[in-house]
Structures are given as C-alpha cells and as structure tokens.
Amino acid sequence: IVASVISDVLRGRPAIYATLSGYDEVAHHSGLERHDTMETLRKLDKQLGRISRATRYAPRPYRIVVLSDHGQTQGATFKQRNGYALDELVRRSIEEGRVQALFGGDENEAAVGLALDEARDADPASANNGGKRVDDKAVVVLGSGNLGLVYLMEERRRLTLEEIQDRHPRLVPTLRDHPHVGFVLANSAAHGPVALGAGGAHYLRDGRVEGRDPLGGFSANSPEHLRRSNGFEHAPDLFVNSFYDEQVEEACAFEELISFHGGMGGSQTRPFILAPIDLPLPEQAIVGAASVHTVLSGWRALLNDGPAGR
Prior knowledge:
Order of helices and strands: HHHEEHHEHEEHHEEEEHEEEEEH
Distance between the termini: 37 Å
Structural class: alpha+beta
Strand order of the largest sheet: 3-4-5-10-6-7-8-9
Low-confidence stretches: 111-116, 124-128
Shape: elongated
Number of strands: 14
Largest sheet: 8 strands, mixed
C-alpha cells in the first residue's frame, strides 16, 4: 500500500488516500499497549516517514493528513463476565419468537468474508451468518464492539418504545437494569429518542434528565451522537451500549474481542486528525463521518483553489 502511495506521489496525483489497518487488526486481539501492538505502531510511523520523504521529489506540493477513524477500548467481554451473550439475555426477555445472533468480530476479517461471498455470488442475506438466512419474524441481535443492536423483525418498521413495552414488557427493563449495560437507546412516540439506564433516563429531544443520567459517564457530546444515530434510516429498535468504568478504563464487547470499538466509552471515542497547523479548524464539534468528510473536503478545496471569494 505504501509503495502505491509513493508511486502516486511521484506521479503528482491531485489527492491520494490509503488505509493502514495494521494497528487496528493487532490491537483487537492483543490489546492496546502490548509489545506487538506498539511494534506495529512503530512500523506504521516509519511508513508515514517514507511517504513524507517522497513528497520532496514530487512534481507538486503535498500536505499529509493522518486520520484515525476511531480509537479502541478494552476489557473482558460481556460473555466472559456473565457466562452468556447478549442474544441469550434478549432470548430470556422476550415473550415469544426466536433470536438470531450476528456478531461481526474483526472488521477486516469480515471485509474479506464479504469479498469472498461477492466473488462466489453468494446471497448477501446469508453472508457472515453461517449460511443462514435472517428470519423475518425473529429478533435479530447484532454486536459491534460494545454496541448491541436489537431488531424486532415482527414489523417492517422501527417499533416505538411504547410498542416494545407493550409487546415485550420484560425486554427493556432487563437490558437497562443489567450491571454490564450502560444505557439502552429507544425511540419514544411521546418523547422522541431516550437513553434509559438503571437509575434514570436522558430525553435527547429536550435534554431533560430524570434520576441518574445514564450518559453521565460518557463523553460530553454523546447526546449529539445518539441523536444522529437515532435518525438513521435503518436504526434498530434498540441500541444497547455496555457500561464504561472510568476508574479502570474498561467496557465490555458483545463479541469476543479483547480490544474493540463500535459503541461509546473510553478511548474508542477519542479518534484524532493530525494535520498541518495552518489548516483551519472547524468552528463546530465534529460529530460523525459526514462532519469529518466536510472538514477534509474543505481543506482540499482550500489547498486547490485558495480561500473562497479570493
């Protein structure tokens, strides 16, 4: 990958992008600051140095921006702590119907699996699910790091919190009261998106908190992130985020990874953009991938065309 970037630099390509995923892959299975993880990071640093040196010989100037799309958090998994996984907890808490679990694991391995399925012309409905189709009447539980997604497939639309409580009265209380769940996000017909924890609720539409704020141990802009996620076209009926312990800096993944990302809590929610100091910073907080794209495309326009109106 680095050789291809250097080749493009020497050809003077107007914009070059590459993904260097080695640290992410190793950290998932080894942890954040283990010897082999840090060695991978040192090697990546050397490769960035090679790219930087190559720009001296390019036919045009380049500015290098290093983007971390996320960090990682670590801790014993949900299953290791409890002896059962999130799908089993959901199974115990619904009134009827069967539960199907889909857990992604290492996203790089998942990407390879999807590519192989596509090459074999496999049915995407069964990809990464052991060849099984998703039952359109089942409860589907997905895990991505310490974020769980619960889809109640009995309707072809997202159920409101009130409907879930009426059809499965034990489900939300069981999830929100679990010691290893930080909060459950649902969409209330009466109040809009609401984060529910064991000791209270945070109503995201108006910022109102009842009891103990379930978002109190998470980042200050977590309500904004949750409002954004709640508005996704294919948002699940319930978002389930694990607990986060600030004292030991641990959360728990719903899949079997020692180090993970996908939800909220800890260093997974502290990515970075390393850029030349003269590039202007946005006035508003960066929330979500679309905001990152706006920043990067704005910098590219500035470097190519100069300040607007000049």
